[in-house]
Write a structure and sequence with these properties.
2 domains; Urease, subunit C, domain 1; 16 helices; single chain; alpha/beta; TIM Barrel; eight-stranded parallel β-sheet; eight-stranded mixed β-sheet; 35% helix; globular
Length: 427
Amino acid sequence: MDVQTADLVLENIGQLLTMDPASGGPGDEEHDPVAGLGLILDGALAAQGDRLVWAGRQRDLGSHVACTPGARRVDLGGRVALPGLVDCHTHLVFAGSRANEFARRVGGSSYEEILAAGGGIHATVKATREASPEQLLALGLKRLDRFLGFGVTTLEAKSGYGLDTDTELKILRVASELGEAHPVDVVPTFLGAHVVPREHRHAREGYLDLVCQEMLPRVAEEGLARFCDVFCDQGAFSLPEARRVLEAGLALGLRPKLHGEQLARTGAVELAIELGALSVDHLEHADAAAAVKLAASGTAAVLLPGATYFLGRKDYADGRMLADAGCRVAVSTDFNPGSCLTENLPLMLNMACLQNRLYPREAILGATRFAAEALGLGEEAGSLAPGRLADVLVLDTTDYRNLIYHFGVNHTHLVFKRGKQAWPPPG
């Protein structure tokens, strides 16, 4: 019997959710409410350095793990442990506030009226262009602290609030610096094709030239992003325009991701599948035919219920349809200044159950294993198994369902990132 050495042991875990794909099949909530969660009762975890070396029953710990001198042993008192959460769709780096617009929207002003008055995304673009890298870094660190406090250990950060070369590069450089300066892993994505900026509103093709011929080559040259994203939807970029940008990114080594089917059924799902996108996100207007195609592809479906809620809309994506079709369904905050300003990913899981009609186990898988896969990190994050990163969220509850059921509060007890306590900060 192999014995693993460990410098961190988490023991007396009442419910250990490993999210190990080998630990259960598709199942259904009525007959198999924990399918896919890899649930171990009375469990324990062991890590050496930044990697897990063992996960199993508490009673088997002594037979499989030997602690190194000075190893830390943490008795979790029957609490729940699961992988650190993964937020696979955020717009982390921006400046400015649009709180005044929220008040106007509640008062009856339309988004179009606010946009015409210089608000909306253009207000954020103006503020972000004017902000220094140091200001953006300080704002990002505070936001990452909040994400970490809710149990998020990995997140994606999109650009898209610069819409000129210098500011898009500035945003991505700040995102990379945030990932180095903070415990949370930050995965940068280029979203220069977010909207057409005001200065190009009469020269749309010229802006696409700028994105494809100047921005993308600079991003690739500096290694500032892993993915290229496009907002492909009614009123944003068309399918041919999105294809042009995504193919230009692919030629430079940036794998596609896509905002799609939020405002209308456009065919963005089919484009995402054709180009091998890691994910297509939003999907409020995806239909059954799109769901079947997604399920047969390598592209994940990402639900963003907070954006639908915050915009005061009722057309939530049909998560039940997507899950029943066999799609890998992830759930994210869509953290951004205009349509979902929250770092509370667990709250999104509650919405995903009540509004997108996911089962609780599906929602939790959507913020762990499937979210990691939507970032190409399925072998690193999102599950607890030997060889994976020692990213662990400990909940101050003995029933994992309280993460969703007892909503609007923070259940985080401890967060370990790469084998080190990250929250609350030690000392």
